Amino acid sequence: MEEPFLLRDELLVPSQVTWHTNPLTVELKRVSRLAAPMATVTIAQYLLPVISVMVAGHNGELQLSGVALANSFTNVTGFSIMCGLVGALETLCGQAYGAKQYEKIGTYAYSAIASNIPICFLISILWLYIEKILISLGQDPEISRIAGSYAFWLIPALFGQAIVIPLSRFLLTQGLVIPLLFTAVTTLLFHVLVCWTLVFLFGLGCNGPAMATSVSFWFYAVILSCYVRFSSSCEKTRGFVSRDFVSSIKQFFQYGIPSAAMICLEWWLFEILILCSGLLPNPKLETSVLSICLTIETLHYVISAGVAAAVSTRVSNNLGAGNPQVARVSVLGGLCLWIVESAFFSILLFTCRNIIGYAFSNSKEVLDYVADLTPLLCLSFILDGFTAVLNGVARGSGWQHIGAWNNTVSYYLVGAPVGIYLAFSRELNGKGLWCGVVVGSTVQATILAIVTASINWKKQAEKARKRIVSTENRLA
User: Fold this and answer.
1) What span, in angstroms and rounded, lies between the C-alpha atoms of 176 and 232?
2) Which of 10, 222, 377, 423, by CA, is between 20 and 30 Å from 188?
3) Per-residue pLDDT tens for 165-198?
4) Tens of pLDDT along 44-66?
5) CA 435 to each of CA 93, 293, 355, 429: distance values in angstroms, whole numbers, following the listed order
6) Which residues, at least 6 apart from 178, have a Cβ–Cβ distance to it below 8 Å?
7) Using CA atoms, how far apart are residues 202 and 211, in angstroms rounded to an integer?
8) Per residue in 158-167, is it b (16+ CB within 10 Å) or e — as a string?
């Protein structure tokens, strides 16, 4: 049975402090032991749809365009919402675990799943009309038809994700990351096999990868559910308290809606960026280069998201346990990891700036453009890693609403206008658009840093206690 990390937190403040027993050193080890597996988990989850698009691309350029368009549309209107809403569980389950309110953890997770399902039905209705929506927006009818068919077969995947993400957070907030790592990697390998079988063995064309994605998400949901149901590690936490169900749903939406806004506002900005690139003087070049840069940026961001998930877990656990100073040290530990991670990948990217484009294109024009944008990408690596960690603090502490307002101001009132101005008025084209992203990220990072530095950790611990026990008191 895997031992959750919180059980040994009393060792964080020893009587005789040495380098090995220094609170920051000890907490840095704990955050790292969570972050490394979670980074792998987020990469595996990210690669599921990417592999599907790659396999679909072997059916032809037209099919690749339709699948890529469907993937973009479904991410914006569906998957991003599911990923965002579940941020509420990082607050609720994490703090409940720290407070040893074990019976509430399962109730929160089941409430999240029950809340997600009706939302999935609403999103599914929208996906049924993707072909007509895209045609009305001026897209090519044949590409729109392929996109609509692909999105239709992705609908089961949406319902599978509605189960997978809450169960993942259920385990994460207890520090049970090894089962998450095993199930994520197993699902990825299973997905590759199913994708190949449906496309190349059964000849299902570009719909095959979508079917494979749906099958894989449900495979993922089943093995996670089996672990939660039968593992002794979840014996205390998998229970369900029916009298708390309605109030748990209310709390889920209270924190889930601003959490979804945090995620969606950021995802949507990059989709707007790609759309704007299509309006520039050389749209084919600009769109290709910005898509490459976005892919590189996303690959790095999923690693930062693993660190953020670890920090969120440590902060929420310690606030719930009434250890405000340890929660503060967790933030410092996460920032130490950010410095190492962002420095390593930024230096690596800058060193490889003249060759990284070959992974996507052989065009000299594209390669030179990507190399020219690399310094801005390195800045994005640094800023996004920093904001990812502090957004993890926001989710762990329960102030997602501040993060949502921050993203609105940073990206849509500052970053996007600056990017559009530089791209079109100053004729910096794609470079101008990405400058807007960097400016927006800088504002976002500055606001988050000020808010985090101003936190009264003792009050946050008191709020966490009230948040977790309030429902119990009302129903007593």
Assistant:
1) 12
2) 377
3) 999 999 999 999 999 999 999 999 999 999 999 9
4) 999 998 898 888 877 777 787 78
5) 38, 13, 22, 10
6) 2, 37
7) 12
8) bbbbbbbbbb
